[in-house]
């Protein structure tokens, strides 16, 4: 069974930092793009950051200069380093991967989500 499991969330004060991790497990043949999304209460899910298999990255304007996405292909893991956190970064963060599992056609996979709360 293929899973994406996030870790590293929690409560942090404004200006603080957190590092999210998302590890993919199972019979994975290849992983293309990996992304982090977030969804705040009452708002739509939004793309935060993305990284391709070639490690090209892009970011939402709201997090540029504060967040850094990276990946470890040997570990099938994507990270999100979040610095200078603001209360408006409070949300459930979701990991996404476009993966090929065994001989099946590549498709979308999602993690279960992890809470990040930025509050004094």
Description of the structure:
This protein has 120 residues and is mostly beta strands. It is 0% helix and 57% strand. It contains no helices and eleven strands. Strands 2, 4, 5, 6, 9, 10 and 11 form a seven-stranded mixed β-sheet that branches. Strand 9 (91-101) and strand 10 (107-110) form a beta hairpin.
Please state the structural category: mainly beta
Q: Output the radius of gyration.
A: 14 Å
Whole-number mean pLDDT: 96
Relative helix content: under 10%
Query: Which parts are unreliable, with pLDDT below 50 for 5 consecutive residues or more?
Result: none
- Strand/helix succession: EEEEEEEEEEE
Biggest sheet features: 7 strands, mixed
Number-wise, the strands total 11
Instruction: Describe the global form.
Output: elongated
Contiguous helical run count: 0
Amount of beta strand? over 45%
How far from one another are the termini?
A: 40 Å
């Amino acid at each position: 069974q293929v899973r994406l499991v996030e870790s590293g969330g929690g409560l942090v004060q404004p200006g603080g930092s957190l590092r999210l991790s998302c590890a993919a497990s199972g019979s994975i043949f290849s992983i293309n793009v990996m992304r982090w999304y977030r969804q705040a209460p009452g708002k739509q899910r939004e793309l935060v950051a993305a990284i391709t298999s070639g490690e090209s990255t892009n970011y939402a304007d709201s997090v540029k200069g504060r967040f850094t996405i990276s990946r470890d292909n040997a570990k099938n893991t994507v990270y999100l380093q979040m610095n200078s956190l603001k209360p408006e970064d409070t949300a459930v963060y979701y990991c996404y991967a476009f993966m090929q599992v065994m001989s099946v056609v590549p498709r979308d996979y999602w993690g279960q989500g992890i809470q990040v709360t930025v509050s004094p």
